[in-house]
Amino acid sequence: VTAAERLTAFGAAVELRLPALIRAAGPQAEAVYPERVHAAIAHALTSPGKRLRPVLTLAVAEMFGCTAPPVLDLACAVEMVHACSLVLDDLPAMDDAALRRGRPTAHRVFGEDMAILAAVALLNRAYALVVEAGSRLRLRRYAVADLAHHLSAAIGTDGLIGGQALDLEARGPEPERLVSLERLEYIHSHKTGALFLAAAELGAMAADTNRRNLEMVAGYAKNLGLAFQISDDLLDVVASSEETGKDSGQDVHKVTFVKLLGVDGARALEAELLEFSVAAVAPLGAKATPLLALAEMVRHRRR
Length: 303
Ligand code: GRG
Known about the structure:
With 303 residues, the chain is mainly alpha-helical. It is built from twelve helices and two strands. Strands 1-2 form a two-stranded antiparallel ribbon. A hairpin with a 2-residue loop joins strand 1 and strand 2 (103-104). The longest helix is centred in the middle third of the chain and has 32 residues, at 106-137. It starts with a helix and ends with a helix.
């Protein structure tokens, strides 16, 4: 199998596993209530996403020799955090988006109240899964608390929440006059890059690999995440919502790399960051081929 086929297989495994993880196992699992929250969670989680972050977790874990079943749940936990962030980001108080993954956004289908509860439930479930999967892995170098801390750091005010908060503050007429390139890099590397970083770190920790390897994949993931957000800025301008499955032109009131650097400048920066990401894992040699394939996917993505 080629590296690209391996990535596709990881995505398919995630796809298959996600629905089973919505509810915790146990005596409550058969309960029907709360139907609308569960339906909203299913809508947010099982709609057709690209599954890049969990694929990254699985690819990194396998690269360091770990294919144990709990890694799949760890990867799904990362996707749950991502799904949570999308539901929140789409709310009227934030992007007020109508379309996500080619479907109406969670709050448009289930109402804002249920969408908020579904987002919080996804986040809550993600932490439970990290603890469960982390315990089953029986790691030597890392404690379960290390996994939870890395995830928490990625989400907190120094992670997704921090990046999103500054992004929201930077909106208005002519946002490009308010925000420097440095601040924009902070916004993007936090609101998007941080979860790519955690996805890779969790994969490395699940494989019980050493700190040096952990740092290597962290360097890869940080650059990949930032490049990914730049490609997102580009697609908002150059692709249609039929292609991306979400509202395009969402960024008119936001500051983006395209606004600060132009389309060509943003493309050049994206290419440079992808080179950095690939260079970070070069010492791993042929083992890193799936990570190179993932960087290629980001380079060529149209959705
Ligand atoms: C509590 C988890 C949590 C978050 C709160 C709302 C928020 C803070 C952060 C939002 C961050 C956000 C939505 C960043 C944009 C990231 C991005 C590029 C999303 C699109 O990712 P894709 O293209 O989406 O991978 P699919 O649909 O393919 O999964």
